[in-house]
Design brief:
213 residues; Rossmann fold; two-stranded antiparallel ribbon; 6 helices; globular
Length: 213
């Protein structure tokens, strides 16, 4: 069973300040670690308790860091690994979520894939997802029908010059997301496989709206 390391989590506030507050879980990209997205915390609404977690797998040598699933060639992805990592994130939320009135996910690249996969797996348990420079995994999930009925909010941001994500995945996501979620987001001219200040501003606005809702 795939699990997340509870000792490899960075929290924005100590335990005494987490009760009754909304929870936002950060999911880093391929070959990175829990420290990567934690630098976004000052740019996110202060109302959230933020937990930045470490992916459970090690990428293939010589790539450093951690991964959510194995990348095999341009488009090769193991659906079992994708789902196992999404389930591990949900198990982590069950463990630490406590009385959080709102739980959302924010992922970059591979982490963006897992943020959507977890949302698809539990449409009524995850309030929203932010997918930065990622995509929706093309393998169907049994609860996709339920997801389309719930239509939770999703922000999808990506760079127009992103050379990393295969175009077929982008095309699939552009068609799939509006059919299943309440979609907002932008394509940022001049941006590659990264996050810009403009995109962070848009993410902040999106997250603030989730708090209001």
């Amino acid at each position: 069973m795939t699990t997340l390391d509870p000792n490899a989590v960075l929290w924005s506030v100590p335990p005494a300040e987490r009760a009754g507050r909304p929870l936002l879980v950060l999911l880093h990209g391929y070959g990175s670690n829990e420290e990567d997205l934690f630098g976004l915390v000052p740019h996110l609404p202060e109302a959230f308790v933020v937990a930045s977690v470490r992916a459970p797998l090690s990428p293939r040598f010589p790539m450093p860091g951690y991964s959510w699933f194995t990348i095999d060639g341009v488009e090769g992805r193991d659906p079992d690994e994708v789902q196992a990592s999404a389930d591990a994130v949900l198990a982590f939320i069950d463990e630490v979520g406590g009385d959080a009135p709102l739980v959302g996910l924010l992922g970059f690249s591979q982490g963006g894939v897992i943020s959507l996969q977890a949302l698809r797996t539990r449409p009524h348990g995850i309030a929203f997802a932010v997918n930065l420079a990622g995509y929706a995994f093309p393998e169907p999930v049994p609860s996709d029908v339920e997801l389309a009925d719930v239509k939770p909010p999703v922000f999808w941001g990506r760079g127009a010059l992103d050379p990393v994500i295969p175009q077929p995945f982008i095309e699939h996501t552009a068609q799939w997301l509006p059919e299943h979620v309440d979609l907002s987001g932008r394509v940022y001219p001049g941006l590659a496989h990264a996050v810009s200040a403009e995109e962070l501003h848009d993410v902040h606005v999106f997250l603030a709206k989730q708090l209001e809702a």
